[in-house]
Each structure stands twice: as structure tokens, then as C-alpha cells.
Write a structure and sequence with these properties.
By secondary structure, the chain is an alpha/beta fold. It is built from nine helices and eleven strands. It starts with a strand and ends in an 11-residue tail after the last helix.
């Protein structure tokens, strides 16, 4: 077995610190034996429309220079679940508490959620696939029970939304972002004990992924980068169960670096094999 695909890659067009060029991506993929892959720059709200325009233009230029990649190199977006309150305020030009990620503070508790795009957006930018991501809670309380319910609500939205292709980095956590969100400096990840996610929640998500043909992403940040071994064991054990039960798994390096060669695909594939995960069966467009 060997990982041959990667569907979560950010280029310098992304709104954050990503710096990978299209030419380096293609060169690196060839060197690593990655045969099927795509770019998925961030799209939180309409604030990132220009980023997607730039990414699409560079993607098309790259394909013109490398026609042999047609059908193997794809254009996607990583779409964030946002609140309808955020979308409305941005459309009205409200600037208070506005960052490149959207309006992060001050919204109604447990706000209605959405993706900030429609079919016309997908068609205009010729988007082949959507990596659906939960990046932050929608305002509510910071206690563990509230966060568990909020995370599950957003993941179920991703798993059932007709635009979703891949569910990104399940249980991803950014301590710095959440400290900003709640103005606390001692805010710790409540999900490092995988058992806090109830069996009923996991079963509901599994069924939704399977019924809606949405792939479950295996992202190195969730099991390979400074995560407790007990969490990695439980997380990848469950991922193996998902694959056995008919959910398609997807690999996404989530590269934000200058080269995808920073990802040790061979070592990660050996980790997958240890848990009985078959990378030959991973998602591929």
C-alpha cells in the first residue's frame, strides 16, 4: 500500500500563512508519487472570493503547462461552516470584529449555520469538490458539554450538505483561535479524550457520511502531530471501523508549507496499516 492521493492542500492563494506555489506542488507530487490531488484553498465567507478567483486562475495556468495532469489534478475549496448572522453582517458591510475568517465574536448563541456560497458559485469557479470544515464554534458557551454538541451539530451539517465531498479534520482544535474567541488564556482542548464523543453521536455521523457519500478525512494534525497516543489509538481505530462499515476515507495533508514534501506520506501510510486502514481504498475523484 502507498498513499497516492491528497485532497487537502493550500497554496499561496489561501487567506492564511500557506505559501505553496502551483509549480512546486506539481513538482513535489511527481517526486512523491502522488498521482491524484487537488488544491483546496480556504473559503470562509465572501471575503475570500478574491482568493478563490486567484487560485482558479493559477490552477488553469498550471493545467495548461501540464496537460498530462488533466483528470488527476483538481480544483476544490475548503469551505468553513459559518453562521447566517456572519453572512448577513458581511453582506451589509459591517466591519466590527471582522477578521479574514469572518465575524468571530458577538453572534447569537447557537446561531443558524450555512456555507457562504451557492450553486452559482460552484459553477462559476468550476469547483470539483468541497472539503467541508468546522473551524470554530458558533458563539455559545465554552463548557465541554456545549462544545461537544456544537461540534456535532456542525459535523452533521457537513455530512448532510449536498455540496460536501469530504468532511475535514474531525475534532480539529486551535487553542490560539479559541482563546481569542472566548478571551481566555487557559482554554484547553476538551476532545483529547476521544470517549467524550458519545457512541450515538459517532453512529449518527457514520450513517450520515455513508448515506450522503461524503468521505471522512484522515488529516495528520489529528493523529501525527503532538497528539496523545491514547487519542490517536481511539481516533484511528474508529476510522478503521468507518472504512470497514462502508464509509470512504480520504487523505488530506492540510499542507500550509512551501512544499508537500514536508509531509512524510510513507510513515503515515505505515501508521494507517498498523490500524488496519487500507490506503488503496481512499477517496479519489
Amino acid at each position: 500500500m502507498a498513499i497516492k492521493s491528497d485532497w487537502h492542500i493550500h497554496t499561496h492563494c489561501s487567506c492564511d500563512s500557506a505559501c505553496l506555489t502551483f509549480e512546486d506542488l506539481i513538482k513535489d507530487a511527481r517526486e512523491l508519487g502522488i498521482t491524484d490531488f487537488g488544491v483546496s484553498d480556504h473559503y470562509h465567507t465572501s471575503l475570500q472570493t478574491h482568493d478563490i478567483e486567484l487560485s482558479r486562475a493559477e490552477y488553469e495556468s498550471a493545467l495548461e503547462m501540464h496537460p498530462e495532469l488533466k483528470g488527476h489534478f483538481h480544483f476544490g475549496v475548503e469551505a468553513t461552516v459559518v453562521s447566517e448572522w456572519e453572512i448577513d453582517r458581511i453582506k451589509r458591510g459591517v466591519k466590527e470584529n471582522l477578521t479574514s475568517c469572518g465575524v468571530l465574536v458577538g453572534g447569537p448563541e447557537v446561531a443558524s449555520i450555512a456555507f457562504d456560497f451557492d450553486d452559482a458559485f460552484i459553477e462559476k469557479y468550476k469547483i470539483d469538490y468541497v472539503v467541508a470544515a468546522m473551524h470554530w464554534p458558533k458563539y455559545g458557551n465554552a463548557d465541554t458539554d456545549s462544545l461537544i454538541k456544537e461540534y456535532h451539530r456542525q459535523y452533521m451539517f457537513c455530512a448532510t450538505n449536498p455540496h460536501s465531498t469530504i468532511l475535514a479534520h474531525y475534532l480539529w482544535w486551535d487553542e490560539g483561535l479559541y482563546s481569542y474567541f472566548w478571551k481566555k488564556t487557559d482554554f484547553k482542548n476538551p476532545f483529547l479524550d476521544f470517549s467524550v464523543i458519545t457512541e450515538s453521536m459517532r453512529d449518527e455521523l457514520k450513517c450520515a457520511l455513508k448515506e450522503n457519500n461524503v468521505a471522512f478525512e484522515l488529516n495528520p494534525c489529528m493523529f501525527f502531530k503532538n497528539m496523545p497516543q491514547a487519542f490517536a489509538d481511539a481516533y484511528l481505530g474508529w476510522a478503521s471501523d468507518l472504512q470497514r462499515d462502508g464509509v470512504v476515507l480520504s487523505f488530506g495533508s492540510d499542507c500550509h508549507k512551501a512544499h508537500i514534501t514536508n509531509t512524510d506520506y510513507g510513515k503515515i501510510d505505515k501508521i494507517f496499516a498498523h490500524y488496519g486502514i487500507d490506503s488503496d481504498k481512499f477517496f479519489c475523484l
